[in-house]
Write the structure tokens for this entry.
Amino acid sequence: MARGNQVWYNGKILPVENAKISLFSHALHYGTGAFEGIRAYKQKSGGGAIFRLREHLVRLTESVKIMGFAFPYTVDQMIEGCIAVCKANNFEECYLRPIAFIGDGPLGVHPGANPTLDLAILTWEWGSYLGDKGIDEGTKLVVSSYLRPHVNSSLTKGKITGQYLTGVVAKREAIAAGFDEALMLDPDGFMTEGTGENLFMVKDGVVKTTSLTSILNGITRQTVMEYFKRKGIEVIETRFTRDELYTADEAFLTGTAAEITPIKSVDNRLIGNGKPGPLSLKLKQDYAALVRGELPEYGKGWLTPIK
Ligand code: PMP
């Protein structure tokens, strides 16, 4: 994992070792940060491009709004920042991590009247999030003992740093038990999502994904829904249970980092015959082509050139 050694920090490009944050940063103590995960891909036509950059930065702005803070940057300023940091590191293909956080200020839970909102954009090279084997052969999931928090006790539409602790403990529990990733239920016992991915299942030709109750509104999820719509395949957004998932013909996870990762098993029950199904495989291939500018019929403006 090569890290970009130049970062964008509060409007300037600088070497990562010169980008300092204060130990008095509110976000370090209380998780008051919002972030994004974005990927840039080498394009068939040459050069690199960032996939659905504007949508990610709109979500970042909304996450900050959900937390209740003012955001001093426009989406267009952040678009320029993301392009600049890729160029500064000579990256045509990489992962980008913008992170906005409440910086140095009063250290009570109340961040004070005038919190500093710092914004950094980091980059690194990142392969398959759930491993090459996971993306090729399917990933092994377990339903976690930790729940995706209820909508009344978390801000589920925000990608907010402090909220990831549940995901961290669920993921560690899953890995320690020999699985690749955890799936979380909601407090009513319905499936929600992985710790960093949305969930789809296919049964008798019907595609379902968990409804936007307590899940993050994933941009890959939106891309996949538009993909199926163009193909004339209906996607039903609904609640479903773990046993419904056990008996799916196919299932897959979607996410910027995980891209399209087929699911091999859930709680040791094979999904279908335990091999990626035809719909998942075709989607995986088409997604890989789409993000590299090979399927221009999808999404006008989805690829922002790094230039
Ligand atoms: N759910 C959670 C909890 C996530 O962290 C992510 C990754 N951002 C996703 C779903 C997938 O979202 P996206 O497709 O926008 O990356």
The first strand starts at residue 6 and ends at 9. The helical segments are 26-30, 53-67, 75-88, 132-137, 165-176, 219-230, 242-246, 278-290. The two ends are 24 Å apart (CA to CA).
